[in-house]
C-alpha cells in the first residue's frame, strides 16, 4: 500500500467525487417531491401555478390553504384517531409479542416448534388476503367503525415480525441471571419482567418497525373504519384531496399536515431508525 | 402442550399456568384476526354468492368462472400481466439502484454518510396517499413542474400526460413505487456490506485485485443471501400492492385498466365499485389465486434459493 502511484491517488479522488455526486443527486430526487409539496402549500394560488419553484416569500405567501384544510375537514379528529390506533397497536404488539417470544425461547414444550413456525409464516403471507373474513369477524364482534378493529388487525399482522426479532434476543440472555432469580423464588412472570429490560434495544427496533405501517395504512381504514368519526389521518386526507381536487392550496396544505408529524418523528429518531434497521437485518 | 402438562402433573411438578398466560393472549389475537381469516377466505372461495346474498357451496365453480367468464378472465389476466410488469420494474430498477447506493454508502471514509442514509430512507416513511398525490400533482401537465424540469434539460417536447396514457401510466406508477421503497433494499444491502471485514478486501487488493473484481468476486457472493431476501420481500409486497394504484389511478386502474393490479382487482370484486355490487366470495377466489402466487414465490425462495445459496460466517 506504500507505493500508491499518482494515478491511483487520482483515481481514488475521482471515485470519491463521483460517489458524492451520485449520492447528492439521489438525495435531491428523494427530497424533491416532499419539499415541493410543503413549499407550495404556503403559497397563493397564482404563485403555485406561476412559480412552483419559488419560496413562499412576500406576495407569494398565503396560509389560506391551511385555513381551508383545517376548517373544512376534521383534521384534529383524524389525527387523534391515527394516534390512538398507532399507539394502541404498538403497545399491544410489544406486550403480546414479547410474551409470546419469551415463552417460545424460554420453555421447552411440545408444540413449540409448530407455534414458532406459525408466527414465522405470518411474515410471508399478507393479512390483506383474509380481508373478506376479517370484515365478517369485525361485524360479528360489533367492531365495524370502531378504532379497536384497526388496533386488533394491526396487532395480528405486526406480531409475527415482533415475535421473530424478540425471540432471537431473548435466546441470548444468559441463563445464570434467570436461574439465580428462580433460586430466590421468583415466579416465571417475575423472570419475564426481569429479562424484558435486557432486550430493550430489540424492543425499540420492533416499536419502530410496527409503528410506520400502522400509521400509513390505507387498506383497513378504508374497509373497517370509513365512518366519519373513526377516519384515520391517511383515509381522511385521501378523501379530502379527492373532494377538493380543484383547490390546490387546500390539497397541498392537507398533505403537508399529514407529512409534518412523520417528518418530525423521523428526524428526532433518525439515528434509532437507521441503526435499528441495520441491526435488525444483521441478526 | 396438554400431554406435557399431564406428565408434569404426574411427576408432581406444578401445572405450567404461566405458559398459557404468556401464549394464549397473543395467539388469540393472531389466530382470530389473521390465521382464521386467511383459512376462512380460502374456504369462502368455494362458495357462490347468490342474488339474495346467500352463499352456496360450488366447489371450484368460482375458479372456473374467474378463469373463463368474459366478466372476469380478461381482468384476471390483465391485472396479472400488469402485476408482472410492476414486479419486473421494481425488481430491476429498485433493487439495482438500492444495491448501488448501498455499495457507495459503505465506502470507507465517506463524508455525510448518515445524512445520506437518513434522506434516502425518508420516502419509505411516507404513506402511499402522500406519495401518490405528490407525484400525481408533479406529473400533471396542469402544474408546470414536470414541463419546467424537462425544459431545463431541453426535453420540453417530451412532456405528455403520462398518467393518462395506457403504457406509460403503468411504468410511471411502478417507478413511483421504486422511488418510495428504494430505502428498504438499500438498508438491507448496506447492513450486509457492513459485516464484510475490510481486511478481506485489503488482502485481495494487496494481491492485485481491483475494486471492480473485489466487488464481483468477494462482495457479491457474500451478498447472495441478502439478494434473495430483498427479492422475496419485493415479490410478496408487489403481488399484493393496492394503495399506490388506488390513490393515483382509482380502484379501476385507469386508464382502461392499464394499471390494474391483482390488489385493485381483488378490492373491486369483493367491495363493489361504481354501479357494480360487491361479490365477497368471488373476491376471496381472487384472494386465493393471489395466495397461491405468493406461496409459489415463497416456496421457490425457501427451496430454490435459500437451500442452495451458501452463507458464510464472517
Structure, explained:
The complex is a heterodimer of chains A (283) and B (314). Chain A is mainly alpha-helical and 283 residues long. Chain A has two domains: 6-62; 68-282, MetI-like fold (Orthogonal Bundle). Helices cover 76% and strands 0% of the residues of chain A. The radius of gyration of chain A is 25 Å and the shape is flat. The mean pLDDT of chain A is 89. Chain B is mostly helical. Chain B is built from 14 helices and two strands, in the order H-H-E-E-H-H-H-H-H-H-H-H-H-H-H-H. Chain B has helices spanning 2-10, 17-44, 61-68, 73-105, 113-125, 128-139, 145-152, 166-181, 183-194, 198-206, 211-238, 243-249, 262-271, 280-306, and strands at residues 47-49, 55-57. Chain B has a two-stranded antiparallel ribbon with strand order 1-2. The radius of gyration of chain B is 25 Å and the shape is globular. At the A-B interface, helix 1, helix 4, helix 5, helix 6 and helix 7 of A face helix 2, helix 4, helix 5, helix 6 and helix 9 of B.
Can I get a quick summary?
The complex is a heterodimer of chains A (283) and B (314). Chain A has helices spanning 6-41, 45-50, 64-71, 75-106, 112-121, 131-140, 147-172, 175-183, 188-195, 200-216, 219-224, 233-243, 248-282. Chain A is mainly alpha-helical.
Key descriptive features of the protein:
heterodimer; A: 283 residues; mainly alpha; MetI-like fold; 2 domains; 13 helices; 76% helix; 0% strand; B: 314 residues; two-stranded antiparallel ribbon; 14 helices; 2 strands
Task: Give the topology.
The complex is a heterodimer of chains A (283) and B (314).
Chain A: H1 6-41, H2 45-50, H3 64-71, H4 75-106, H5 112-121, H6 131-140, H7 147-172, H8 175-183, H9 188-195, H10 200-216, H11 219-224, H12 233-243, H13 248-282
Chain B: H1 2-10, H2 17-44, E1 47-49, E2 55-57, H3 61-68, H4 73-105, H5 113-125, H6 128-139, H7 145-152, H8 166-181, H9 183-194, H10 198-206, H11 211-238, H12 243-249, H13 262-271, H14 280-306
Antiparallel strand pairs in B: 1-2
Helix pairs in contact in B: 2-14, 3-4, 4-8, 4-9, 4-11, 5-9, 6-12, 9-11, 11-14, 13-14
